[in-house]
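Table S7 (text form). Paired inputs.
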Amino acid sequence: MTAEQALPRWTRNSAHALATDDRGHVLLVRVPPGYPETGRWTLPGGGLDFGEDPAAGAVRELTEETGLTGRIVSLVFVDSRTQPPRPEANLGEWHGIRIVYRVEITGGELRDEIDGSTDAAAWFTREELQSLPIVDLVAVALEHLEKE
């Protein structure tokens, strides 16, 4: 058995909020140093706690990462991706299942997360997004927004 075969496979379920304001700006959060894809912008969201309803997880993550509160409007998409083992990080094959909800912002004040899995939160125009370093999840979400 090789070292890669000895590493366990794992699955991560995550839920995310796709929110726009009345002018069409998209809400994103930035990945901080020390995480994969550092410096890139993504949708508010993250891993679900054991037994947590995905919709509740998306709203929880929205508040944790941006200070805003919201309500689920609809399910936008569910997708998945895989990554090969990364023995240097002691990680086996990885399967990520991503659930994205359309969320209406209902309150709160926009703020950056402190000591969390993001370090900035901001609204962006579609034009600004074209030159922004984004993760693939945002690209997929933007394709769905274009269909609305």
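Next pair, protein 2 of 2.
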Amino acid sequence: MALSTSLRSVASKVVNKFGGDVTFRRIVTGAYNASTGTVVENSTDTGIKGVLEDVSKREVSDLVQAGDKRLIIAAQDLNGTVPTTADKVVISGRVLQIIRVDTIEQDNQPITYELILRD
């Protein structure tokens, strides 16, 4: 068994044990509707666990603002889906936009995703 496989499994177990319920909402841009002039968005929700915390003051920059949140999720729990800034996360009924995605990897396999979220 490769080290990355073991790390993915351990990350999933730890996040599921200590994390809270979140919904990962995959947003896919659909077809353009010429009559309304809009692009239809399709979404798929996946219930997972994640560890949520505030960003620290030293992390505030041009991209990260005070009040943003950090969510750590196990890559294994997303079944091959890679989060993007087009996706959203729903926590306690609040829909949060993904501002940044950082991937922790081993042997080019994602172990966890660290998402910076904003209202």
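Helices lie at 3-18.
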